[in-house]
Amino acid sequence: MLRLENISSFIHTSLSNHLSETSVLLLEMTIIALAAITLFALLGLILVLMERKVSAWIQIRLGPNRVGPKGIFQTAADTLKLVLKEGFVPDGADKFLYKLAPFVVMIIAMILLAPIAFAKNFAIWDLNIGVFFITAISSVSVIGILMAGWASNNQYSLLGAMRSGAQIISYEISAGMAILSIVVLTGSLQISDIVASQSNGWWLFKGHIPALIAFVIYIIAVTAETNRAPFDMAEAESELTGGFHTEYAGMRFALFFLAEYINIFIVCAIGATLFLGGWMPFHIGNWEAFNHIMDYIPSSIWFLSKTFFLIFVIMWFRWTFPRLRIDQLLQLEWKYLLPISLFNLLLITLIAIKGWHF
Amino acid sequence: MITFLKQYFKDIYQAISSLLKGMKLTGYYFTHHKEIITQQYPDNKSTLVLPERFRGEVVMLHDENNEHACTGCSACELACPNGTIKIINKFEVNAEGKKKKAIDAFVYHLELCTMCNLCIVACPTDAIKMAQTFEHSVFDRSLLTKQLNKPNSKLREGVE
Ligand code: SF4
Ligand code: SF4
Prior knowledge:
The structure holds 2 protein chains of 2 kinds.
Chain A: H1 4-18, H2 21-58, H3 74-84, H4 95-112, E1 117-119, E2 122-123, H5 130-138, H6 141-151, H7 155-186, H8 191-196, H9 203-206, H10 208-225, H11 237-240, H12 250-275, H13 288-296, H14 299-320, H15 326-354
Chain B: H1 2-31, E1 57-60, E2 67-68, H2 75-79, E3 85-93, E4 99-109, H3 118-122, E5 128-131, E6 145-147, E7 154-155
Parallel strand pairs in B: 2-7
Antiparallel strand pairs in B: 1-5, 3-4, 4-6
The structure holds iron/sulfur cluster (2 copies).
């Protein structure tokens, strides 16, 4: 059967046969970069279309249905429009930072891809501090947003960026706590170890109610971290006319827009890895026949379907829940999520020490 | 302290349950596409069914004898908040040789109308009503100023 790990090892061996080690490394890095960019472009097209369809159906509308069969080429047409638009830099802007900001946001999203296991034995860089790496890098993305807000020289942008700073820094804590609870259960920071520890059941089910609470907190916190409604303080179309990207147009705006969706994909991929077993197939206890059928589905399909399920849940949130004010937003974090997640972490530690989980 | 904790957990419970209620409804809409209310307008022009209370423009009702029920009382003109209606009256001499007020022109400015329905409610004889037409775009604004009573139409017998 065609497996992603076979493809990657085939590329590696065939390259090593002909080239020196350094050039193999360089070539492979180029391939990975190209693959990542392709993945981003594809994800952008798919997720934006998915968002528009999901929002339409939730709001009893039809959604895009003119460009191509059932409107599937709508996002491609939109992208074409954005590419053709003039890349406009406002007069009073800090030109250098203004142009740099979208790339910072994008590159951070790209770095975050590294430790994610897309399929069995298929990750760009399965480093031993994978989870730590993710939490560390993801907090840098706020710099890109602050940069955009500051460089635009616009009150709305600056306000949006500042809000986003406050928001990401606050919610990072509870997201970190939720991630930490799985790390406590697994006893490892490496993504492959975390996935392997779920071979007999996903942590969401194995860790009793505290794991469920951690999962819910994780979903809430990452929704806030990716600046999505109901926590879209940074953009706040209704108050800040677009927040930190008010002044952006054309392809630079498209990069921010894309980064939002890429970030959703990444946080959902991490959520799926930590709580839903990553690429691990769904197994039920001793049902050998059932488990065997489940094993037959390729691991990449498992990973992607779990990730897309979480993405759908986050979209569902967006089109259902009312927006929060900035003070309510911070109140939710500091008065509710943080104490609960701290207490929850304590419970999980107890479970892990006593070995009460399955 | 205890009451505080009670309130704290009650708040959480209420928040979660009300959010779940919302998600249940939107989840229902997401999975039941028959609820979709979008009309694919130019495509379904032949089968388009408008809601009963849709208001497109004010029309005057005429029967087969080219008679209407408008007495020219101007109640609609007074009711209209935008000055959309202008009633121009004339005096007719009837069979007994008496002068009688009758409508000459019911001028209706569709371009000013907000479809508020107040004129229809105000009319004591139900002479006008809202029609369901909606394709009103024209190339000349003057085409939107209409005379609602048809030429040579008369007041129906017995309507005061
Ligand atoms: S519907 Fe309202 S605005 Fe239009 S003519 Fe009647 S009263 Fe005036
Ligand atoms: S339409 Fe009705 S309210 Fe208006 S002038 Fe005629 S009778 Fe009076």
